[in-house]
Design a protein that fits this description.
The structure holds two protein chains of two kinds. Chain A is of the alpha+beta class. In chain A, strands 2-1-5-4-3 form a five-stranded antiparallel sheet. Helices cover 43% and strands 25% of the residues of chain B. Chain B has a five-stranded antiparallel sheet. A five-stranded mixed sheet of chain B has the order 11-12-10-15-16, sandwiched between helices. In chain B, helix 11 packs across helix 12 and helix 12 crosses helix 13. Chain B is elongated, with a radius of gyration of 41 Å. The chains are: A alpha+beta, B alpha+beta. At the A-B interface, strand 3 of A face helix 1, strand 2 and helix 2 of B.
């Protein structure tokens, strides 16, 4: 039976959720999100990897924590469209069209890039 | 459910995840596509390479993605008739000419089945750069050794006889192989060149130090010679014998000329060809010291052109300059190796005479006076005789500096002028 919280979480918009909201969430909430969620540190280490993303990628969430995001976990994001932007720009809140090779199948997705001055953690949201 | 089944499930899940991880991390791009190039499987690295080319995320069609830099791939697959096999191996795809990141990819394509192609993409930018560097070096080396007549390179046996010869040697020195192999390298020295006898020394020095360089003159087959640098080094990989040397003769004529020209530029008065003031003083300092040490006398003459101002005023500076030039030439002939002529002022000259006492200096001065007076300069249709006045002085012990000597010589010169010009006076 879905709780009110779960319904609320499911309604949280891919386009609208803020970094603040994301920071506030607990693990259960994050796992209930309808989109993939990756949270990573200033040094690009994975800190958050929700269940949705794990299902998408075919990887166990807990195994990704502490790994280098752009080198190991999501190497196809290690380029000027994603990784470089987190390097170059002080603030990010943008949705871009992308193609991921999740489970080696090219998949058209939308990525939301989130970075905010004052918040150490950065986020990538994945919606297909 | 039995535990064993659960364990199998978990094991398979593990295995599956491992495989996925394996492909995610694969450091080369791997793509599976149909014969039309439509991609159905691709790993992250492949996506990266294609993105580097297309600049937009798109992974629909392999050939379309590579169209801008490898349009031939589609055709290669289409025309590959076999049911399976290697379509291409390490086929080079030039993404762009310069800049950071991927510039060259190697693409290998394999027809895995009648309807499926596997493609592998690798970044070989660094490798290509290295190859280019090596090729460049090869070309440079080739040009140095074979194509240019600046160098001869040949090998010589320990007793100094030429062992191998090449086209450059023939070009530079004019000898064919048969004329040269077995002959000693003293062949290239001039008959009266002291180095001719030092051949064994040259080889011995090379043997001891590993290599030896000397400057000298080299004589061609036709007797002409050129300024050269001879480098002798131990060992030659092409020779069977161990006691063998490689000799390189470099034509340094141009370089020598440049150094000579430079030296001249710095020490000579450009217009007349006499030594310039600075050089004259240097020479004087040196010879004064040497003569004092050796107990030898030393004298100085100072002279100038009589009525020079009038020559310039009446006939122009071009004529005046020509007068000076002719005078310098005339004096140089008279002096030979016995003295040094320097231009000290506009029309004022000094002569340094090491090893000459006052009597010797007076004799030289008289010769100069006579020669200058005899020299005719055709000026405006009529002949004008140039004459000079000269003053001489001999250095007294202890020898002072050149300034003192010139002062004294100048006094004597003034006296010569005052008493009628075209004469020699001694201090």
């Amino acid at each position: 039976m879905t709780t009110l919280d779960e319904i609320n979480t499911a309604l949280i918009g891919f386009d609208t959720v803020s970094i603040g909201d994301l920071e506030q969430m607990n693990a259960v909430d994050r796992d209930a999100l309808a989109f993939g969620l990756i949270g990573f540190s200033e040094t690009n280490e994975v800190e958050i990897y929700n269940a949705t993303e794990a299902r998408l990628a075919g990887l166990r969430a807990e195994r990704q924590i502490g790994q280098a995001l752009f080198n190991t976990v999501a190497p196809c994001m290690n380029n000027f469209l994603v990784a470089q932007r987190f390097e170059d720009e002080a603030e990010l809140n943008e949705v871009i069209d992308y193609v991921l090779t999740l489970r080696m199948r090219p998949k058209k997705v939308m990525l939301r890039l989130l970075k905010q001055p004052g918040t150490a953690r950065r986020y990538i949201l994945v919606k297909w | 459910m039995s535990n064993t089944l659960d364990c199998d499930d978990i094991a398979e899940e593990d295995e599956h995840e491992s495989l996925l991880s394996f492909f995610y991390m694969c450091p080369i791009g791997v793509v599976r596509m149909n014969l039309e190039g439509d991609i159905d499987l691709a790993n992250p690295h492949a996506a990266q390479y294609l993105l580097a080319i297309t600049r937009k995320p798109a992974m629909d069609n392999f050939f379309s993605a590579l169209e801008t830099c490898a349009p031939e791939l589609r055709h290669m697959v289409r025309t590959f008739r076999e049911k399976s096999g290697v379509i291409c191996e390490q086929h080079r795809v030039f993404v762009r000419a310069s800049g950071p990141g991927v510039r060259v990819l190697a693409c290998s394509m394999i027809k895995a089945s009648p309807s499926m192609v596997m493609a592998v993409l690798q970044d070989i930018t660094k490798q290509v750069e290295q190859e280019r560097q090596l090729a460049q070096n090869d070309v440079l080396l080739d040009a140095l050794l074979a194509g240019v007549n600046d160098f001869s390179l040949f090998s010589v046996k320990s007793f100094g006889c030429i062992e191998t010869w090449n086209a450059a040697g023939a070009r530079q020195l004019g000898y064919s192989v048969s004329e040269v192999v077995g002959k000693p390298i003293s062949l290239f020295y001039r008959p009266n060149d002291p180095s001719r006898g030092k051949l064994s020394e040259q080889l011995a020095a090379a043997a001891q130090e590993g290599w030896h360089v000397q400057d000298g003159w080299c004589e061609r087959r036709d007797g002409s010679r050129f300024s050269c640098q001879i480098m002798t080094s131990v060992g030659d990989e092409h020779s069977q014998s161990s006691a063998s040397f490689t000799v390189v003769i470099r034509d340094v004529t141009e370089r020598r000329m440049t150094t000579d020209e430079l030296r001249k530029l710095l020490t000579t008065d450009q217009m007349t060809g006499a030594f310039n003031r600075g050089r004259f003083f240097e020479l004087a300092k040196h010879h004064i010291h040497r003569c004092e040490q050796a107990g030898q006398p030393l004298s100085v003459i100072m002279f100038d052109v009589d009525h020079f101002k009038a020559i310039n005023d009446n006939f122009g500076h071009a004529i005046g300059d020509e007068v000076l030039r002719r005078l310098v030439n005339c004096c140089k002939v008279q002096l030979g190796d016995g003295g040094f002529l320097g231009r000290l002022g506009g029309e004022e000259f000094g002569v340094l005479l090491p090893n000459a006492d006052l009597e010797g200096a007076k004799a030289v001065a008289e010769r100069l006076r006579v020669a200058a007076a005899a020299d005719l300069v055709a000026v405006g249709g009529s002949a004008t005789l140039t004459t000079v006045s000269l003053g001489c002085v001999a250095a007294e012990r202890p020898m002072g500096g050149i300034d003192d000597l010139l002062k004294a010589a100048d006094k004597a010169l003034y006296e010569a002028k005052r008493s009628g010009r075209n004469r020699v006076c001694a201090a």
